[in-house]
Amino acid sequence: MTEKVSLSELQLIIRDSLYMSLPDFYWVIAEISELKENNAGHCYIELIEKHPDEKNVRAHIKAIIWSNRYRFLRAFFENATGESLREGLKILIKTKVEYHELYGLSLVISDIDPAFTIGEMAVKKQLIIKKLEQEGVFSMNKEIEFPNVPQRIAVISSKNAAGYSDFINHLKNNSFGYVFYTALIEASLQGKETEQDIISALDRIALYSYLFDLVVIIRGGGSQTDLSWFDNYNIAYHVTQFPLPVVTGIGHDKDISITDMVAHTALKTPTAVADFLVDSVARAENHIVELSTEIINMSRSIFEKNRARIESSGNKLFPLAQIMISDVKNKLSAGLIEIINIGKAKIIKAGLIPANQESRLASATKSYSSGAELKLKQNIQRLNSGSNNCFGVNHLILNGLANKLQILNPENVLQRGFSITTINGRIIRNCDQIEKDDLINTQLYEGSLRSTVVDKRNRK
User: Fold this and answer.
1) Looking at per-residue confidence, does 369 or 30 come out higher?
2) Which residues of 284-294 are buried (b: 16+ CB within 10 A; e: fewer)?
3) pLDDT the model gives residue 224
4) Which of 121, 182, 184, 134 is nearest to 157 (CA)?
5) Roughly what angle, to the nearest 10 degrees, separates helices 233-240 and 114-134?
């Protein structure tokens, strides 16, 4: 059996073994998954190594940069790369393995190679661009026709950002007095929330795309580091698929992001975007003015060309019109005389027609009156005869029905010696309706009986 040791003694054995086995410094490639600075200025980092699919974690370890070294390394790294140390960044670090009895295994970082990170960022950016090109979507948003008069604008930005305020003031206080309608969809444009916020904002705008002419993404100000959040495949892909033109103004001077590359139009600053929109409306107005001037000039030219032709045609038509008027006057005079002659003949002829018509009408009236009087007398006779026959037949039918009713009268039935037996007001027709000891009533022609059932027998 081995010698018994305390936990602290075992920890010291582990520490000494590690120091003896790993005495040197090592250059390690890893990705930052978490980074925190404490009040003392020390930087605590969680380092991971991912599988090539960028989902499964292969390795994980804690690391620390002491405050006196961290101040130097942070400034050096940011100046060299334009990036700050942050989550998701792949770095090459010089480190030494350390083991502490309370805090366990960790790495102490003494140096960072910015060249490696620059190369990794460039490679990652190129891979995203290549993927978008292979999918055939890289230039899709650029192919959307830009509106002639872009006045209804959906703005993706932070409400409190100085760039947003500059954009709105520059847009609304333009020297031309153009009116623009803007709707702000708030989103975080730096940090880990950038991807989700921008995609969510684009999805919201897409639901009401018919209300807008284009989308503007503006950031304004900030460090070069913040620009890296826009080198994102998911943001870029959503921009390529968007149904409206996307214009970016995310504040950069030296480099452009992948989001800028796939957008319809990429500009440096929010105020540059505002100037671009004002200029677009101004170009549309100038084009309309040019078209109106062109139309006026063409109209004048056409009018001048046809005015002489109209005057010449008028001179030629005037004599012809006089001749036609003279001919029409002659035809009207002849027609008027003919109408007068026809009218006279008709009047003379019409004087003879009334006398003949009066004679015919009197004769026809007498003939019609005689025939109608005869028909009336015949109809009266038929009506009298038919009524008498109908009354006689109905009288016989009624007498027969009266005789039947008299025969069926219950009093006559009782008079012939029959009786009617009831129980509780109901006529008894068979023995099943009564039981032994029931009280029953018997109605005779003269008087009635009340009796008790002693026995009952069916017909069978």
Assistant:
1) 30
2) beeeeeeeeee
3) 55
4) 184
5) 30
**Average pLDDT for 29-34:** 89
Q: How much is the pTM?
A: 0.53
* Number of neighbours of residue 44 by Cβ within 10 angstroms: 14
> Closest by alpha carbon to 238, among 127, 156, 124, 183?
156
Task: Identify the residue with better confidence: 415 or 283.
Answer: 283
Per-residue confidence (pLDDT) for residue 362, from 0 to 100: 67
What pLDDT score does 180 carry?
A: 94
CA 288: distance to chain centroid?
A: 34
Q: Is the pLDDT of residue 434 over 70?
A: yes
Q: Token pair of 251, please? A: 């504040």
For residue 171, the surrounding DSSP H or E stretch is helix 162-172
Domains of the chain: 7-129 (2.40.50.140), 148-283 (3.40.50.10550), 398-460 (no CATH)
Contacts of 176-180 with C-beta under 8 Å, sequence gap 24+, read: 176/278, 176/281, 176/282, 176/285, 178/151, 178/278, 178/281, 178/282, 179/151, 180/151, 180/153, 180/277
Residue among 234, 222, 245 at smallest CA distance from 147 = 245
Q: Is 153 helix (H, G, I), strand (E, B) or coil?
A: strand
Please tell me the distance from the alpha carbon of residue 267 to that of residue 165, in angstroms, as a whole number. 17
What phi and psi, each to the nearest 5 degrees, are found at residue 94? -95, 125
Summarised one tens digit per residue, pLDDT across range 46-104 is 999 887 666 678 899 999 999 999 999 988 888 877 778 888 888 888 999 988 888 88
- Average pLDDT value for the chain: 84
User: Distance between CA atoms of 199 and 318, rounded to whole angstroms?
Assistant: 77
Rg (CA), the chain: 58
CB 129 within 8 A of CB 261: yes
